[in-house]
Amino acid sequence: MSAYVTKSPWVVHYDGSSCNGCDIEVLACLTPMYDVERFGIINCGNPKHADVFLVTGSVNEQNKGIVKQIYEQMPEPKVVVAIGICACSGGIFKDCYNVLGGVDQVIPVDAYVPGCAARPEAIIDAVVKGLGVLQAKREAMLNKVEKVEEVEEVVEDAVEEPAEEVAEEVKSEGGEE
Amino acid sequence: MIVKTVVSIIAYLVLAPLLGGLLAGLERKLSAKMQRRVGPPVLQPFYDVFKLFEKEKMAPTRFQDFYVLVFVVFVIASGVIFFAGGDLLLVIFTLTIATAFLVVAAYSSNSPYAETGAERELLAMMAYEPMVLLTAIGFYMYHGSFNVRDILGSDSMCFLPMIGIFIGWIFILTLKFRKSPFDLSMSHHAHQELVRGLTTEFVGRTMGLIELSHWYENVVLLGFVFLFFANGTAWGWVLGIVVAIVAYFVEVFIDNTFARMKWQFAFKSSWIIAVVLGMVNVFVLYLCF
Ligand code: SF4
User: Which pLDDT score, from 0 to 100, does residue B200 have?
Assistant: First the structure.
């Protein structure tokens, strides 16, 4: 049975040091044009209620603590999506003296969305891929896999297939609407 | 008699969350339509609550969950009293105690967002309480009893004689449901200046319980609307249920068309309504009955 978390993924969005290009694309997903609430996705703005952490922009010395803190405040199961090439690797800001690089320098990232700026379709696709990870993490929680490494292993094993399945499911549900 | 009471209590315990959740789902659908979106499936609120129960446990203090549990118990208890045909005043006071415990739970988290939300919730309570009390008094003046059972059993409809109180009740429902323009303490919608206000620090299961008790609470509040139309006949029942559901969607409509007002406005307007419509109506009832 698919976990309910895949049917109601609430997101929290954090702007690392993005140029605002990717932020606007994230917000575009919420507009009537793309309307991600069709899939139960809500931008809740509160890490304690969120399941999906969307980060735009690279991490730097100033905000690495904040990124870590938001991540730690989110209850399991949770996934992190890095949006835009800045969040993936640092992008054009990579060589700045204060930039550490992509988000994965600070917290584990589950899905990367390339592009400058990332397109809304790609962002939605990444969140849907993230649902597979949520599903796997939920199963890991049920099976009482306690050690973090083990959870990650399970996630890695399981991520490919369920991601596809969930994507199919969500797409077909969207189609009916 | 006892059998009837027990059946209605059980029906309330089982059906109220289903009805409340369904109304919440239709509400989101309607909001989406008003914004020209497709919107989530009607069952989305149920998915949300089931999801919340799947999440990891997390709480800033170990007392918070206890306070929330008290909140849930009192909300459900107020509905049980209502649907068992009990005393309206008791229903109102139980609901007030429940909300007070929710405020205490928010305060206990020590989070600035939750605390500001809690303060605003107290202001909202101060704003709506007079009208709530006047409603109960109005029912007493007309029917000569605070008991829901007696009000349901009476053979005359109190809607027209109590029209002022009815309008006042619909007005404060906006505050009670925490809808715009009076969603001061927390909003059902995404993003606002206080993060999630009152509920910022409630995680997973705790948040799920709060959602669930809001559904219970909404059904009781709509039950009050129903009472205005009950006159012992079948068509009174039908009319009451239809008006109660229409009232809910009127609130959703208001929610979607207004921006949030400051607490001063919420406070002043609801006290003015309570005095002008509520008091005058009670006075008229005093003269006539
Ligand atoms: S990827 Fe491009 S659009 Fe996005 S934040 Fe970086 S520079 Fe801006």
Answer: 84
Q: Of ligand 1's atoms, which has the minimum distance to the CA of residue A22?
A: 4
Q: Which two tokens stand for residue B260?
A: 């949030």
At residue B167 the predicted structure's pLDDT band, cuts being 50, 70 and 90, is very high
**Taking the model in full, what pTM does it have?**
0.86
Q: CA-to-CA distance for B68 and B245, rounded, in angstroms?
A: 28
Nearest to B176 by CA among B247, B239, B241: B247
Give the SS3 label for residue A111: strand
**The domain at A10-139 falls in which architecture?**
3-Layer(aba) Sandwich (3.40)
A84 in B contact zone (CB under 8 Å)? no
B145, B151 in Cβ contact below 8 A?
yes
DSSP A69: H
SS3 labels along B104-170: HHHHHCCCHHHHHHHHHHHHHHHHHHHHHHHHHHHHHHHHCCCEHHHHHHCCCCCCCCCHHHHHHHH
Output B149 or B18, whichever has higher pLDDT. Answer: B18
Q: Residues B175-189: pLDDT tens digits?
A: 998 888 888 877 776
Confidence at residue A140, expressed as pLDDT on a 0 to 100 scale: 82
Indicate the helix (H) or strand (E) that contains B31: helix B2-34
Cβ <8 Å between A4 and B47: yes
Cα–Cα distance, A28 to A24 (Å, whole number) = 6
Is B214 strand, coil or helix?
helix
Q: Which of A86, A92, A93, A123 to mutate to test the pocket of ligand 1 (most atoms within 8 A of CB)?
A: A86
| Facing B190 at nearest CB: one of A43, A77, A141 | A43
Residue nearest to atom 2 of ligand 1 (CA): A116
Closest CB to A38: pick one of B40, B47, B191.
Answer: B40
Burial class (CB in 10 A: 0-12, 13-18, 19+), A145: middle
The answer to whether residue A8 scores a pLDDT higher than 60 is yes
Q: How far is CA A45 from the centre of its chain?
A: 14
Asked if A48 and B203 come within 8 Å (Cβ–Cβ), the reply is yes
Contact A173 B32 (CB under 8 A): no
Which residues sit with their C-beta closer than 6 Å to ligand 1?
Answer: A 18-19, 21-22, 56-57, 84-86, 91-92, 116-117
What are the chain B neighbours of A30 within 8 Å (beta carbons)?
190
Hey, where are the domains in chain A?
10-139
The domains of chain B are located at 2-288
CA of A117 to the centre of ligand 1 (A): 5
